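If you are new to this repository, start here. Below is one unmodified record pulled from the training split, so you can see the exact layout before writing a loader.
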Amino acid sequence: MNTLVVRPTRVRTAGVRQQILLTAQQRLMMLMLLFMAAFFLVSVRLLYFALFDSDAGRGGNSTAFVPARADIVDRNGVPLARTIDGYSIRVMPSKLLNDRQYLADELHKIFPDMAREELLAKLTGPRPTYIRRRALPDQVAAVNAIGDVGFDFPREKERLYPQMSLAAHVLGFTNAEGHGVTGVEGAFDQRLIDKATRGDPLTLSIDARVQGVLESELSNAVTNLEAIGGAGIILDVHTGEVMAMTSLPTYNPNKLAGSDPTTRRNAVTYNLYELGSVVKPLSIGAAIDNGVVTSMAKRYDATQPLAIAGFRIRDSHMMNRWLNVPETLIHSSNIVTAQIADQLGKEKMEAMFRSLEFNKRPEIELKERAFPLWPREWGRLSTMTTSYGHGIAVTPLHLASAYAALVNGGIWRPATILKLGDKAPPQGRRVFKASTSARMRQLLRLIVSDGTGRQADAPGFRVGGKTGSAEKPGAGGYRRHSLVSTFSAVFPMDNPRYVVLVMIDEPKGNAFSSGQRTAGYTAAPVVKKVVMRAGPMLGVFPDESRDVDVSELTPLLWKNGESE
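And here is the target side for that same chain:
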């Protein structure tokens, strides 16, 4: 009997395998096509955003990344003020479960700077109230740990000043509603909150590095000299940009509660001073400009006080000889400056002060600007006394802007707290002839190299400037033992770039100043330290091979004796 043997059909098995493989390839191809389509769509979408939606989050229709209030930054982008989500601690008395006396004790442990009675009053009050609007995270955690449902912790927009007290008077501060009160915060409040502009930081002319140098050196001097305060400014002589501005005593805008309100006054723009002899170069410049002083060699009698209208004009250190113009500035003679002003006349003297805007509030964007004390009548006596800085009171900013015009070729420009960048500086107006400005650069350099400003002579920086030590007015006349000591400087004098003005209010004559209270021993050394530290930051480097050519003036100086 024959057996039928059935063999597997290999052809059919191979066909099935091919079919499966073909299906897998088709599916893989479809997945690849889907992936490529998705990738293409995402790429097109990103390209669309890049080309047509670049303003999203920056002031267009989207506000996802726009702060509630614009940041404020220095000229190099360093943040000076920004808005963050901060913690607050609030109590709702009607919901409290624990004994109020117990809660007051616990809160006083967390907030020892607040009186227990004040805390108890908040806990027993009729309506919800804040315990602390700017609370630290550990304070929030500690209050939360008390475990009472009557406390809540709302997150609120908070203005933070990350550099602490740096440039506090420039920046100012905001109120509880988030609006600016003083400083840049107050002056630019609308620009900082406007939806169209708040996405972009407000860039100031201030350089945070230079600001730190000015603050630290002036603060050290005020402390060491036991003074009641001080002020300082660094100003670009060609653009009017403020590179640094400080006022002492200062405050921390992050911690306004409990601080002394008097520390919030900006002495540079809001305090008035009779600044004394620092005004003399302006008077001499006006006399040169108007042809009253035509020769540096002409001599004037300084052998005795000058009597005028029952008043006697004296020098703090009588030279007891005749002085020429360079010697008048080097030895800071009131007597000779008054004689030159008398020859200039009241109309031209008053015109000079008006051209420098000594009769107006200082020109800058800040709101805190004082109106000068101006002579009621410009008589002969006023003409003579104002020439050496008495009888007229202005802010330090007035003087800094005037010195910029005196040395930059004669052009007065308003000061600005905003960075100009690529913008052209204000056109300004001519107040001194270019030739007068060149002569004054020589004379200011001589005051530092050979006169009362020697202690401001930073090696290689070619500093020029003038000292001023003015008695403060008081009841019944001037107070002989209360001085405002000022040094107004410019560097480098062969190519002026910056005014550096330092003022110290009522310095004490102690070991730090060799027992002297005058500007040559108190304010001038501060200028030297500031210039040596801040100069390279501002792009000015020491070079002892360069200087102003004063060779025609040095033969006129009598080297025997000096004064201030």
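Two things worth knowing about this chain: The chain has 18 helices and 17 strands. The CA atoms of residues 85 and 157 lie 5 Å apart.
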